[in-house]
Design a protein that fits this description.
mainly alpha, Serine Threonine Protein Phosphatase 5, Tetratricopeptide repeat, two-stranded antiparallel ribbon, 6 helices, 2 strands
Length: 142
């Protein structure tokens, strides 16, 4: 992976995750277009074949069978995302903005984790994740 850390002026750096192969997005789009009953399994196959593809983890969280499965998918995607951020120059602080489409997989996992943590009663984690999401991009989701 190439490292893309854009520092302009003062303040924390902006970290932008690299683009993924268009074939991955096409596979995810096809899985999401599956019939309702088959959609979750189709998305899970994309995740199994491409476990570093953050958008697939976020999609799996979106189509999960229940809130616990959703929480697990978002949590794995979040941790995979932290690994990807570190591999691309993130040092534990700095912006990960919604304006960079390649950051959406990570940010969607973090947002999903915040929501599902609240759903299952993990209020401390929900609060931490919500705060981290705002630290990543104080402007919020566009």
């Amino acid at each position: 992976m190439s490292s893309t850390v854009n520092v302009s002026g003062t303040g924390p750096p902006n970290v932008v995750l690299p683009a993924v192969d268009n074939a991955l997005q096409a596979a995810l789009d096809a899985a999401l277009a599956s019939h309702d009953r088959d959609r979750r399994d189709a998305v899970a196959r994309v995740v199994a074949n491409h476990p570093r593809y953050l958008a697939a983890w976020a999609a799996l969280g979106d189509v999960a069978r229940d809130s616990v499965e959703s929480y697990m998918a978002y949590r794995v995607g979040y941790h995979r995302g932290l690994d990807a951020l570190r591999a691309n120059g993130w040092k534990g602080s700095g912006y990960v903005r919604w304006s960079a489409p390649t950051n959406h997989g990570f940010l969607n996992c973090l947002d999903g984790l915040a929501r599902t943590a609240a759903d299952i009663g993990e209020t401390d984690e929900a609060t931490r994740c919500s705060q981290f999401l705002l630290q990543c991009d104080p402007n919020g989701r566009p």
